[in-house]
Specification:
This protein has 320 residues and is α/β, with parallel strands linked by helices. It has helices spanning 22-29, 31-48, 53-65, 70-88, 92-108, 132-145, 160-173, 186-199, 216-233, 251-263, 282-290, 311-319, and strands at 120-125, 150-153, 176-178, 204-208, 238-246, 268-272, 294-298, 306-308. It folds into two domains: 20-108, SRP54, nucleotide-binding domain (Four Helix Bundle (Hemerythrin (Met), subunit A), Up-down Bundle); 120-266, P-loop containing nucleotide triphosphate hydrolases (Rossmann fold), CATH 3.40.50. Strands 3-2-4-1-5-6-7-8 form an eight-stranded mixed sheet, sandwiched between helices. Bound molecules: guanosine-5'-diphosphate (GDP) and magnesium ion. Magnesium ion (MG) binds next to helix 6 and helix 7.
């Protein structure tokens, strides 16, 4: 699959990212969803030789099973039906092209993550198990690969194992991790991290947090306190909050994102574990319903298994 060519891109938005392996990683990560979306529709179109109501029904079911959500599914199916009636139908390839176009348009309409200048502090939030710590390692690698000095802050002080896990990543990546004892105040960890960062001329501090949704007010207080520490101790650092969601949770991830973004001001989303689900269409549902920028996609457990979210490429990997 790594030999596969980049899709032919026409929209102005999508100068293909030059990062090596981007397309191969994205394709591999979305493989299960792609199969879910294309296999039965493909069999239907090829079996019947036309795009008719029955093939449209297959398409509708596939879109729903891949978790694109009811609204988007209905819009897509209606649009395909319209085009077919206007004589733009045809074979499977034509159908795939239509879907890539339509989904790109939907995704391009969603907000984009504003780049923030260095030095910057990224706060990573999300419920336990969604992939926060792993995502931090990936973000750190991305940052370091682009020449930035990175420092990690073990702000999930709730469990010793969480601190240790971040330190293991720090060792692997050759990055400093600022930590304190389990149970200590995350804002104090951030305070230490900021001072270490200034001393070492760090460009990017990435902060792990214990995102426990059942203690919403605690979470809010905790994040507000971290915010105040950054404001006071590092006013020159730009800040952003990334919410990590597990794509294998499907529509539950949508609910989680709604709850979180009502509690915490979120700048962007990271959808993880796309490699382990046939429900990757949830990315489309989330991008449209939440009006929050999807920033990155997690496509594996390794430090390199993160790709930037790009609308056109994402649509092409789903349906192309
Ligand atoms: N397959 C896959 N596994 C992932 C991905 N991101 C995280 N994981 C796994 O999900 C589990 C929980 O991740 P972790 O970073 O500890 O989550 P946290 O509790 O939110 O910090 C670990 O086993 C990770 O290896 C991903 O993109 N793909
Ligand atoms: Mg963690």
């Amino acid at each position: 699959m790594s030999d596969e060519a980049e899709p032919h891109l026409t929209l102005e938005e999508s100068e293909a990212p030059k990062k090596k392996g981007f397309w191969a990683k994205l394709k591999r990560g979305l493989n299960m969803t792609h199969t879910e979306l294309i296999e039965r529709v493909s069999a239907a179109v090829q079996g019947r030789g036309v795009i008719d109501e029955e093939t449209l029904e297959e398409l509708e079911e596939s879109l729903l099973r891949a978790d694109l959500g009811v609204t988007t599914t209905m819009e897509l199916v209606d649009e395909v039906r319209d085009r077919v009636q206007r004589g733009q139908g045809g074979d499977l390839v034509r159908l795939q092209e239509m879907l890539v176009d339509q989904v790109s348009v939907l995704l391009l309409d969603a907000p984009k993550l504003e780049p923030v200048e260095t030095p910057r502090a990224t706060l990573v939030v999300g419920v336990n198990g969604v992939g926060k710590t792993t995502t931090i390692a990936k973000l750190a690698k991305l940052s370091a690969d682009s020449g930035e000095r990175v420092l990690l802050a073990a702000g999930d002080t709730f469990r010793a194992a969480a601190i240790d896990q971040l330190c293991v990543w720090g060792d692997r990546l050759g990055m400093e991790v600022v930590r304190q004892k389990p149970g200590s105040d995350p804002a104090a960890v951030v305070y230490d991290a900021v001072h270490a960062a200034k001393a070492r001329k760090v460009d990017h501090i990435i902060i792990d947090t214990a995102g426990r949704l059942h203690t919403k007010s605690n979470l809010m207080d905790e994040l507000a306190k971290i915010g105040r520490v950054l404001e006071r101790e590092a006013p020159d650092f730009s800040r952003r909050v990334l919410l990590v969601l597990d794509a294998t949770n499907g529509q539950n991830a949508v609910r989680q994102a709604k709850e979180f973004s009502a509690t915490v001001p979120v700048d962007g989303l990271v959808l993880t574990k796309l490699d382990g689900t046939a429900k990757g269409g949830v990315v489309v549902a989330i991008a449209r319903e939440l009006r929050l920028p999807v920033a990155y996609l997690g496509v594996g457990e390794g430090a390199s298994d993160l790709v930037e979210f790009r609308a056109r490429e994402f649509a092409a990997a789903l349906f192309g």
